[in-house]
UniProtKB/TrEMBL annotation:
This is Glycerophosphodiester phosphodiesterase. It comes from SAR86 cluster bacterium. GO terms for biological process: lipid metabolic process. Pfam families: GDPD. PANTHER family: GLYCEROPHOSPHODIESTER PHOSPHODIESTERASE, CYTOPLASMIC, GLYCEROPHOSPHORYL DIESTER PHOSPHODIESTERASE. Residues 1-221 form the GP-PDE domain. GO terms for molecular function: phosphoric diester hydrolase activity. InterPro entries: GP_PDE_dom (IPR030395), PLC-like_Pdiesterase_TIM-brl (IPR017946). Gene3D superfamilies: Phosphatidylinositol (PI) phosphodiesterase.
Amino acid sequence: MICIGHRGASGYAPENTLAAFKLAVTMHCPWIELDVYAVEGELLVIHDDTLERTTNGHGRVMQTSLATLRSLDAGNGQQIPTLSEVIEQIDHRAGINIELKGEHTALPVNRLLNDYLSRGWQADEFMLSSFDHEELKLGEPAFERGVLFDRASKDYFKTTAALGAYSLNVSMRLVKPALVEEAHRRGLKVFVYTVNEADDIQRMRDFGVDGIFCNYPDRVG
């Protein structure tokens, strides 16, 4: 069972910042997860569609200028990073799971990642995921797709099949051994969010899930 650093090592450093991603890599996390919005042609790494929770700004991400967003404090003096900045910092030391958060993110992400492929990066160093399955459908087929669900659905496997998904990414409260077994039978990986406590980490291991999104990568042996 692998650890995917949820917004980096976000239990120890401000989420979705270069500090959090650097720490996750230092903790030998094989993958990190982040969230992107496309703003004025730039891909910014931030989770919420509003600014108040994670920055000293106010209002909506998509209604704020790029210059203003880049001037904000995202915690401990950290800036909201661009996706390019994160990729350059990771520098092949971990895989990057890119969650498409805002509308119209898939195509600019495709363009950026294809540029990195042309510079020697490998497609298997990246993964795309989203709750917005229509946006995820636009993701470049070269990159594995993780289909996110936050509620029980009878269409888990219909959706993953339609998207040619690599993984089923589900909330911990939805995970049952039977779901994991069926996903594996269909050739899917199962990645579970957000799993931070020792007993939950062990339970997911016992269930046979393939990976967990965790804010504390050092807790996952």
